[in-house]
Amino acid sequence: MSLSLRSVPIVTAAGLTVITIAAWAALIAGAPMADPPTFLAAWIVMMAAMMLPSSAPMFLLYRMSVSDGQRGEVRTLAFGVGYLLVWALVGAIVLIAQRVLDAVLDPGLRPFGVAAVLAAAGGYQFTPLKATCLRACQTPADFLVRHWHGGALGPLRLGIDHGLYCLGCCWALMAVLVAAGGMGLAWVALIALIVLVEKLAPRATWFSRAVGVAFVAGALVVTLRPELVTPMAM
Amino acid sequence: MAEAVATKWTMKGRVLIACNCDWGCPCNVNALPSKGNCEGGWTWEIEDGAVGDIKVNGLYLSLYADWPKAIHEGNGIATALIDERADAKQREVLSTLVEGNAGGPWGVFRKTFTTLHGPTFVRYEANFSGELPEFKAGDVAECKTTFIRNPVTSATSHPRIVLPEGMILKDAALLASKRFVVRDGVKYDHSGQYAAFGFFAYTGP
Questions:
Q1: What is the mean pLDDT of each run of 10 residues along chain B (205 residues)?
Q2: What is the ipTM of this complex?
Q3: Count: domains in chain A
Q4: Is there a contact between A2 and B170 if contact means CB atoms under 8 Å apart?
Q5: Strand partners, B179
Q6: What is the distance, to the nearest Å, from the Cα of residue A188 to the centroid of all Cα atoms in its chain?
Q7: Contact yes or no for B142/B149 (Cβ under 8 A)
Q8: Distance of alpha carbon B90 from alpha carbon B55, whole angstroms
Q9: In terms of C-beta density within 10 A (0-12 exposed, 13-18 middle, 19 or more buried), how is residue B36 classed?
Q10: Is B154 near chain A, with CB under 8 Å?
Q11: A233 within some domain
């Protein structure tokens, strides 16, 4: 893998930029999330907006490690599709979980549910699993060489692998986004910013821990003052 | 030995390196080997390769050597291994390459050997796409890798090395061998020593 100005993947970089801007524009315009298909579509758009900026180094390095002869752009797109496939599946799980919880959970208990999610997400920030997954996302060159898959389906499989590590890294943050933030725009931006700092500032281990402490503190506050949790705007 | 050929070839994929040196291997930075001599070699997984019209995608190729001093000081003995799944034509072109008759890194290494055994055709059981690469080449050679660990905290360490002038690879993840044994042609067991893993891309002659 040689790094030279000539090898900078301009098409991939431009593609990532356009998709990210379009996804944020769609989020700001406000997408309907009424029925399952539109919810899933909106969820995928939200994931693209939140995750593509911090995953850009992985996508660009991937593009640079497949040569032009192999239809590099198509392979990079397949890599991205595999990655978003994992997050799409998470969207389906969120949808089902929400329906089930709405049906069985007394609305009065909702603040305690939010507190439980915040506490769990805060605790997860300190686990070795989180650290392992985050390390894979922080070191794309290392990830790519050790998880590389060849062949026609290779890019898709590698994208799914990347998505699974990303999920291991960020599922708790997404749980907070859904449970505490109700997927509101400010929360989307906040969680995306946390993901960005965690991935792109690998030396700032204190940051992940500070986020964990803040979530646990949030759980305590919600437990003591349940009225702070407003009905979910969905 | 096959005749020297001028057929154009290209090859890319990933290569697993192991030797008797300490982790990191001083030879990467042009210093002398840790123990004064070099006993080690390479297994290449060819993801995408062609010699003229003959595709060699998906095949494995190995070269393991025993040099009495540093590699560039020569007088080495080596053994070459080729994936037995290769058909007759593939075996011929891969033999030509690994015997050093068509350039590439093998052409350079050939000059440092007094004897080159093989190539022997063996069955590879390899996993280069798991968390850590490993392979077994028949009963002849095997290598399993593990992460280097911090001796104080036992935390896994993930060093990388960038070699802009590298002949085998330009960029590698540094690992340790959990098991590294060669049993035919050259014989040694250097489990627990240097291993490295990275992408390669060669063209020739």
A1: 70 96 95 95 95 94 96 94 96 95 93 93 94 94 96 91 93 96 95 96 90
A2: 0.82
A3: 1
A4: yes
A5: B144
A6: 10
A7: no
A8: 7
A9: exposed
A10: no
A11: no
